[in-house]
């Protein structure tokens, strides 16, 4: 063992000299080129037919004003927006001073986009933080959390969970057994430990502060099992012709939260429309769709694409890929 350690030390001492000598003899040594990506798979792909209308509460476009109008006069409310086999998403409004119960989810992350007011977000084992409009929050699985409204105005936020998720209520904050239709809550121990904090080392992104104003690159915020939350930013351009069908997904629905500017969506079975910030738009599984940035030419826009698969497949026409 000692002999091997000596060899390692000698090798480490000689390595810089060897590298320097190599650089002198090959001063213009080019870096190895990255391998070309593999060609896309050409296959018989199942396409949904006939056209299937959206089933409530799903809509091609959920305008925020419509959701608010349905709960006019209420200080606190929840409005279901997305329901599919993989994901669910709701608008939540909390009255001033209101706080959610402490809860966690067993196996999947929770994504939250704060849209109005200010909230204090508290995660077990992490410093609490204040979030306001445009904050994207990544809550790991098996970490209890609470959301509390700050100030004198209600807080409004959009929350995304895996469709299979059911909340867990920590025993130290919940004494009475919760109730859920068709289920019985019992005292149990859940193993596996808490999920890791996001890649940024913190559970949030101030999208307006860091990206819109700070110049950081828009990118995927969550890319985990069963949940992909991807920030896509660009400038408004003329709407592509209707002959540009875009693509469809074989195994899942997709929806987008409009974070900034405008998004124009062409989706099979619907007229082309342009959505504004705060709207939620969607395309069902197996339906052609094409999203582009609308509004005045050159205006910046951001759509937050949400689906269950970070490496999900996209089916295009053969012509768009240069094949017949």
UniProtKB/TrEMBL annotation:
It holds the Pfam family Cupin_2. Residues 1-23 form the signal peptide. Residues 246-294 form the Cupin type-2 domain. Keywords: Signal. InterPro entries: Cupin_2 (IPR013096), RmlC-like_jellyroll (IPR014710), RmlC_Cupin_sf (IPR011051). Gene3D superfamilies: Jelly Rolls. The keyword Signal applies. The keyword Magnesium does not apply. This is Cupin domain-containing protein. The lineage of its organism: Bacteria, Pseudomonadati, Pseudomonadota, Alphaproteobacteria, Sphingomonadales.
């Amino acid at each position: 063992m000692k002999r091997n350690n000596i060899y390692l030390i000698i090798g480490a001492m000689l390595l810089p000299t060897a590298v320097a000598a190599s650089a002198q003899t090959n001063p213009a040594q080019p870096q190895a080129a990255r391998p070309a990506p593999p060609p896309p798979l050409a296959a018989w792909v199942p396409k949904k037919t006939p056209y299937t209308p959206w089933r409530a509460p799903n809509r091609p476009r959920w305008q925020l004003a419509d959701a608010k109008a349905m709960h006019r006069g209420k200080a606190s409310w929840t409005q279901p927006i997305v329901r599919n086999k993989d994901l669910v998403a709701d608008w939540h409004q909390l009255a001033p001073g209101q706080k959610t119960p402490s809860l966690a989810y067993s196996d999947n992350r929770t994504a939250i986009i704060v849209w109005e007011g200010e909230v204090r977000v508290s995660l077990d084992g992490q410093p609490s933080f204040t979030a306001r409009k445009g904050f994207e929050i990544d809550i790991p699985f098996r970490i209890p959390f609470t959301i509390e409204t700050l100030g004198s105005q209600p807080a409004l936020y959009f929350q995304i969970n895996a469709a299979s998720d059911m909340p867990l209520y920590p025993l130290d904050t919940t004494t009475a057994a919760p109730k859920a239709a068709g289920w019985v809550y019992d005292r149990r121990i859940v193993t596996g430990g808490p999920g890791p904090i996001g890649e940024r080392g913190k559970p949030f992104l101030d999208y307006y502060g860091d990206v819109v104003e700070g110049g950081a690159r828009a990118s995927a915020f969550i890319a985990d099992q069963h949940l992909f939350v991807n920030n896509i930013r660009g400038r408004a351009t003329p709407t592509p012709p209707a002959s540009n069908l875009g693509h469809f997904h074989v195994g899942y629905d997709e929806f987008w939260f409009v974070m900034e500017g405008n998004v124009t969506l062409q989706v099979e079975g619907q007229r082309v429309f342009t959505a504004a910030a705060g709207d939620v738009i969607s395309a069902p599984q197996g339906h052609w769709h094409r999203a582009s940035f609308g509004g005045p030419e050159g205006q910046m826009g951001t759509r937050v694409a949400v689906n269950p698969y970070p490496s999900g497949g996209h089916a295009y026409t053969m012509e768009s890929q240069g094949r017949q």
